[in-house]
């Protein structure tokens, strides 16, 4: 079953068109790994999928409430403890028990620690644990393993694998090999648009 279908999508960042003609589909139980050199537009595509930036053209067919996005900016509440952050998200997204998320990223020793006072890798673990708490089936992840040590990269890969086994999907921009057996790869280089400023009144019409 297809959970996310992208058809002829054009994506912008600020005033610039970054991608055009992006077309792919992701099924339940499938991960799609986005590849492409620095600046190609992986973050731009993920932001568009997450609804943070409107598409310039094309279609995104998915339940908008199905997508959970995790980006470079971790989105943690710095003054709240790890447990309070997870409980906060549990209340926002429904009443998911945060215990599996805590276990998946080995957050038990850190539950009382304020999020703002953790290391970069610890913050990342909390940010990834948030995905489990959302209960959302389509994960859109931007460089999720940045700052993680090898043990926590393995925990992350295990969490994604479990998510896929439960019928979830994932679109992941990453430069490393996560070793996910179900993953397919999409190189976005062919979709890189000739840079067009969308606020230029003389620019070629986009859509
Ligand atoms: N606010 C902005 N306004 C205009 N252009 C931007 C803006 N932010 C990023 N860009 C440009 O958009 C292009 C795509 O950037 P994006 O962050 O999507 O690439 P990426 O594939 O995720 O790169 P990386 O592998 O380095 O994370 C880049 O050329 C970048 O310079």
Could you walk me through the main structural features you see in this protein, from its secondary elements to its overall organization?
- By secondary structure, this protein is an alpha/beta fold.
- The chain has a single domain (2-197), classed as Rossmann fold (3-Layer(aba) Sandwich).
- Helices cover 28% and strands 29% of the residues.
- It has 5 helices and 9 strands, in the order βββαββαααβαβββ.
- The protein has helices at residues 42-49, 82-93, 99-104, 120-134, 150-165; strands at 2-13, 16-27, 31-35, 57-61, 67-70, 138-142, 169-173, 183-187, 192-197.
- Strands 5-6-7-3-8 form a 5-stranded parallel beta sheet, sandwiched between helices. A 4-stranded antiparallel beta sheet has the order 4-1-2-9, with helices on one face.
- The longest helix is centred in the C-terminal third of the chain and has 16 residues, at 150-165.
- The protein is globular and about 50 Å long.
- 38% of the residues are buried.
- The model is unreliable at 203-207 (pLDDT under 50).
- It binds adenosine-5'-triphosphate (ATP).
- Adenosine-5'-triphosphate binds next to β2 and α1.
- The site of adenosine-5'-triphosphate has 12 residues, from β2 and α1.
